[in-house]
Amino acid sequence: MSDLVRFGVSLDGELLKKFDDYIKQHTYSNRSNAIADLIREKLIEQEWESDEIVTGVITMVFDHHQRELTNTLTSIQHDHHQMIISSQHIHLDQDNCFEIIVVKGRTSELNLLCNRMKAARGVKHAKLNLATTGANI
Ligand code: NI
User: Fold this and answer.
1) How close is the Cα of 63 to the center of ligand 1, in Å?
2) Residues that place a CB less than 5 A from ion ligand 1
3) CA atoms within 13 A of residue 17's CA, in its CB half-sphere
4) Ligand 1 center to residue 55 CA distance, Å?
5) Does residue 96 contact residue 62 with C-beta atoms inside 8 Å?
């Protein structure tokens, strides 16, 4: 982290009141930390939009009994093996499997991977949650 810099911010009173409520809700100890987090969040969103290398997690729930589905999902993951860091398979119950896949790559490639798995018959839920590599923040 580089040196701390102080700067003044002028805000509408109503907006500041809402921000202070937000700070309380999110248990920040001061406004500076809350502002820094909001700035970082926006920079990370910008990273996602610019198709930079990001990291994230794909969560997926699928039907354990669906014929060939496990093989299909494994094949798709092998097609995109260079962006998969690790995966974990959990047998949720008698009928459902839950998979967590940690990924790293360009946003567009990660979306493609997630969409391919989501489109497979028997997949009930597949969602990509993006984070950041932290390199540009
Ligand atoms: Ni299972």
Assistant:
1) 9
2) 91, 97
3) 3
4) 25
5) yes
- Which pLDDT band holds residue 1 (cuts at 50, 70, 90)? low
Quick one: CA torsion of 99, 101, 106, 108, rounded to 10 degrees?
A: 0
Whether the CB-CB separation of 42 and 121 falls below 8 Å is answered with no
Distance from chain centroid for Cα 101 = 11
Q: How far is it, in rounded angstroms, from Cα 115 to Cα 24?
A: 38
pTM of this prediction?
Answer: 0.83
Residue 15 has pLDDT above 70, yes or no: yes
Give me ligand 1 centre to Cα 104, in Å: 24
Q: Residue 60 Cα, ligand 1 centroid: separation in angstroms? A: 11
Owner of token pair 């009173």: 13
**Distance from the CA of 79 to the center of ligand 1, in angstroms?**
21
Instruction: Give, for 124, the enclosing helix (H) or strand (E).
Output: strand 123-130
